[in-house]
Design brief:
about 40% helix; alpha/beta; Rossmann fold; 4 strands
Length: about 100
């Protein structure tokens, strides 16, 4: 299982993460995605997922939550978000 994650920058994952995905072979790899954003809606995960699908990766799950953005969401991700992320990773590990 490969875990890939990014913050969200203008509705997209970090450029370096997208370059990493473009430059590497994910054929037949199981991939789990995680991200944080001001909205917490997972736009960064969807963009990574779309690119990984073109690289023949198998997306096994996605986790995203709110993250700090300027003056909004201070203290995020918080302890609850981190525990939720741990649970997400543990569930994938069991499958």
């Amino acid at each position: 299982m490969v875990y890939l994650g990014s913050g969200c920058y203008g509705g997209k994952p970090a450029k370096i993460m997208m370059k990493f995905i473009k430059d590497n072979n994910f054929k037949s790899r199981n991939v789990a995605l995680f991200g944080t954003s001001g909205s917490g809606e997972g736009f960064e995960c969807r963009k990574m997922e779309n690119l990984l699908i073109t690289k023949d990766a198998s997306i096994k799950g996605k986790f995203f939550c709110k993250g700090k953005f300027l003056f909004a969401n201070r203290g995020r991700p918080n302890d609850e978000d981190i525990n939720d992320a741990k649970e997400f990773a543990q569930k994938l590990k069991q499958n």
